[in-house]
Fold this protein.
Amino acid sequence: MPELTDLSTILALCEKYDFSLSKGYGQNFIINPGVCPKIVDGSGIDGRWGVIEIGPGIGVLTKELAQFRWEESAAHIHNWVRGMNPWPAAWFVTGGGRKVKVLECRVAAQSGAPGQVLALKPLTVACGEGAVQLLRVVPEGSKPMEGSAFAAGLRLQVGDAL
């Protein structure tokens, strides 16, 4: 995959496909990967918000954009996981700060507080609306595993917050 934060790559793609970009039309690219986090930090938003820009142009799908939160609906998370597979892979952060990629999940007809563990086999987690069963996950620094094996490794219990 080309490095779309590298100006020379962007310019080569524009030339290859005969794109003519103009800052006068608002066609600007942020090529410094440190700028976006600073914009978000300065905006005053917190973890309850999701920010994404959708528009014409090259667009850059980043690993950061693949994160989801349990406050989102089960249907949204399920579709997010499918859409982000195989790259960059949808992911969440546990209460302990561990990043976990989700490779496969399905919507479940259960409910609870967002992030609450509802069942262990299969690992089922409540969302803002509904719940998802985490079928295949990849904890940071580990190999892919079943969600139930991940739950066992963390010694999760029904009712725990993930």
Summary: The chain has a mean pLDDT of 85. Strands lie at 91-93, 99-108, 117-120, 123-126, 131-139, 145-146.
